[in-house]
Amino acid sequence: MRHGEVLGLRWDDIEGNVITVQRALITVTGGQVELSTPKTATGIRRIYIDEGTLTVLAQHHELQEAEAQAAAAAWDNTGFVFTNQLGGMLNPRNFDRDWYELLERSGVPRITFHGLRHLHTSQLVRAGHDPVTVADRIGHRDPSFTLKRYSHAFEDQRKKAGLGLSTLMEPESD
């Protein structure tokens, strides 16, 4: 998901193992944030997620509910998955600051949040998913754009492609 799509995600956008992306949080003139539609028409989409991600989201939801109880009447029940300390919309700049702090504390190399989108796309291509499905998953209309801008070759892929002409020209066996 794009940065703003993650920040615009509400709990009711998650049903079972499917996230419906239908809004994004954007920064407008003056540094204010507001909700908008995703960047492109194909940005409105359904994304299937795995059990591990669902578990992490459930744990996050429990923590958020505890924060809401502690804040009592000061809690702004917006329904967003990612919020500020009082339940309101999370400013993207604050999210970025927290993101980089978490990376540093965990010893993970610095990567932009958008860089994760590139990594995810490259890993999907590496795993053999077809370009149309990959483009659909990340909200692109044109799979060639997705491949050109978002997928990157890994060393094991380079090695695997180092086949001789005789191997490439072998007839397939039934």
How would you sum up this structure, described in words?
The protein is mainly alpha-helical. The protein folds into 2 domains: 1-108, hpI Integrase, Chain A (Orthogonal Bundle), CATH 1.10.443.10; 111-155. Helices cover 47% and strands 10% of the residues. The protein is built from 8 helices and 5 strands; from the N terminus they run H-E-E-E-E-E-H-H-H-H-H-H-H. The protein has helices spanning 3-7, 51-71, 92-106, 113-126, 131-138, 143-150, 155-160, 165-169, and strands at residues 14-15, 18-21, 24-27, 33-36, 45-48. The strands form 2 sheets. A 3-stranded antiparallel β-sheet has the order 1-2-5. The longest helix has 21 residues, at 51-71. It is elongated.
CATH architectural arrangement of the largest domain: Orthogonal Bundle
Round the Cα radius of gyration to an integer and report it: 20 Å
Number of strands: 5
Percentage of residues in strands: 5-15%
Task: Enumerate the strands of the largest sheet in spatial order, edge to edge or round the barrel.
Answer: 1-2-5
Percentage of residues in helical conformation: 40-55%
CATH homologous superfamily classification of the largest domain: Intergrase catalytic core
Largest sheet: 3 strands, antiparallel
Pairing-aware structural class of the strands and helices? Answer: mainly alpha
- In the CATH scheme, what's the topology name of the largest domain? hpI Integrase, Chain A
